[in-house]
């Protein structure tokens, strides 16, 4: 790469920051520019749906890197929004008119939160708030100051984390999920049932198979209540949206890159343009066997950022095939997942969900495909080790509580 433009990373979240830092760690000596569209330096995002909501002062402790620390690594941090990519000229155009050239462009644009349909009454009322950015979380915290009643829409991880944190802070919380179980995309039934019971124990009124049909407001336009599809009416001064997110792929699509449920990348996380890669929530990887992989997690974004950095410095790097993993704090309990529990045809349970400490090992035939654990880190690490090695243990061994799974996994 022979110009002075170097690598430009669009998106200063976990994936973009990871890529920029890893370029230096791998020995990249050319310019590195990190462009973020928020006024804040890169920050830790998991606390947004938990701690920051109820303790906005804690936002001061979540910064991961600022301009000064990045400058020491010779990484230039730019605050601004990229409006267009000119692939022919290898330049990005920012909304302020600035043009920046690149030898290689990494798109780490993340995802945008789903919102309520425009046709739903009160969908844009004051007090209807998503959680995706630091400013979103601070807006929720401000609204909470005079909100004794809160409705959370959506039972994915953002929704259940926020519901737990807000309930623990002393508010009355109702959670509405349109499907018949919480964490519908990722959790096997025993885990979904435990999450529902856990939230109920924290004081959250959980309603599944239920959607919002209207948001009522007062004369000032502020939320007063939410009506649901079951005929219920729930008082609320704040409605938190946890409806999932869509890949932020518009910039790539406008540049003529293939988009199909995300920016399409190959085994090396490269688009069809060899000078453009995509990582994290915005990307969908199609591997050599034709399988599709899109992971919305901090860990995947960081792993993919490091992979692209390694590949740019060492082109012979093997394709990206890391085992996905994820964790979540739901109130005082920690949930950890690895692999693909959604592919499991049967599930082996260790411990008792009623005790609040248990693990689930998912099998497709005799092959281990995923593990989920609640406050059982040893079981989780054993399962993750097995998945990373592509090995398994017989279901009868996993079901035996006396078996030392970590030792068996290390020897597998």
From TrEMBL:
<dbReference type="InterPro" id="IPR050446">
    <property type="entry name" value="FAD-oxidoreductase/Apoptosis"/>
</dbReference>
<keyword id="KW-0274">FAD</keyword>
<dbReference type="InterPro" id="IPR028202">
    <property type="entry name" value="Reductase_C"/>
</dbReference>
<dbReference type="InterPro" id="IPR016156">
    <property type="entry name" value="FAD/NAD-linked_Rdtase_dimer_sf"/>
</dbReference>
<keyword id="KW-0285">Flavoprotein</keyword>
<dbReference type="InterPro" id="IPR023753">
    <property type="entry name" value="FAD/NAD-binding_dom"/>
</dbReference>
<keyword id="KW-0223">Dioxygenase</keyword>
<feature type="domain" description="FAD/NAD(P)-binding">
    <location>
        <begin position="7"/>
        <end position="305"/>
    </location>
</feature>
<dbReference type="GO" id="GO:0005737">
    <property type="term" value="C:cytoplasm"/>
</dbReference>
<keyword id="KW-0560">Oxidoreductase</keyword>
<dbReference type="GO" id="GO:0016651">
    <property type="term" value="F:oxidoreductase activity, acting on NAD(P)H"/>
</dbReference>
<feature type="domain" description="Reductase C-terminal">
    <location>
        <begin position="325"/>
        <end position="409"/>
    </location>
</feature>
<dbReference type="InterPro" id="IPR036188">
    <property type="entry name" value="FAD/NAD-bd_sf"/>
</dbReference>
<protein>
    <submittedName>
        <fullName>3-phenylpropionate/trans-cinnamate dioxygenase ferredoxin reductase subunit</fullName>
    </submittedName>
</protein>
<dbReference type="GO" id="GO:0051213">
    <property type="term" value="F:dioxygenase activity"/>
</dbReference>
<dbReference type="Pfam" id="PF14759">
    <property type="entry name" value="Reductase_C"/>
</dbReference>
<dbReference type="Pfam" id="PF07992">
    <property type="entry name" value="Pyr_redox_2"/>
</dbReference>
